[in-house]
Amino acid sequence: MRLASMRYKDYVWPHNPRVYTIEYKRTMGARKVPFGRYHLQDLGPAQRVMRGEGEFVGEGAYGEFKKLATVFYAGGPGLLVHPVWQTSNAYFVELSLRQEPRADYVGYSFAFWEGYDGHSTGVQVTGGGGEPETGPAASTAGERRHTVRQGETLWGIARDYGLSLTELIALNPQIKNPNLILAGEEVRLA
Fold first, then answer.
1. DSSP classification of residue 59
2. Domain-by-domain residue ranges, the chain?
């Protein structure tokens, strides 16, 4: 079975990295209890860290590494698509080069940190009727999402939100097959 190529933003790996790992962490707080033992507090999951390493070989090996380094220097988050693991919005945080004394070989390693936009730092002001108000104090998320329910299709979701199927697919590049969406998946609407 041939896997699709891994990609980040507009960069597509010519062949997938040799090693790819995902680190899951949970942040814990530990407090000493006077004259006792301790109390642990679960502070929730931390960002996932995706690491990998691979090689570029052949005549254009150094040129290919330069393309990857250019994406690293661009900064900001981007869509990281792995052919097997889930797609995530991630920051490119590490890139290193291992050079051997050969003109056609470059070893590299990288790390991405998953971004999370599921929190709101805005203040929502409600009027007397309980309806949220708009204004500078109101939260301005700007991005809408829909969680897929059992039996839903992309066509139906697009129709329900007044979008064309083409617009919905363009907003969701992580969906490789528009005919196959699973309950619980998040679909970006705006």
1. T
2. 7-114, 145-188
158's tokens = 């697009």
Runs of H (alpha helix) within the chain: 61-74, 154-160, 165-171
pLDDT (tens digit per residue) in 62-120: 999 999 999 999 988 999 988 887 778 899 999 999 887 788 899 999 999 998 776 55
What residues have CB less than 8 Å from 178, skipping those under 6 apart? 154, 165, 169
79: burial class by Cβ within 10 Å (0-12, 13-18, 19+)? middle
Check: CATH 3.60.15.10 for 145-188? no
Task: Kindly report the pTM of this predicted structure.
Answer: 0.59
Distances (CA, A) of 160 to 14, 147, 167, 173: 39, 13, 13, 20
Place of tokens 């109101």: 138
The CATH class of the 7-114 domain is mainly beta
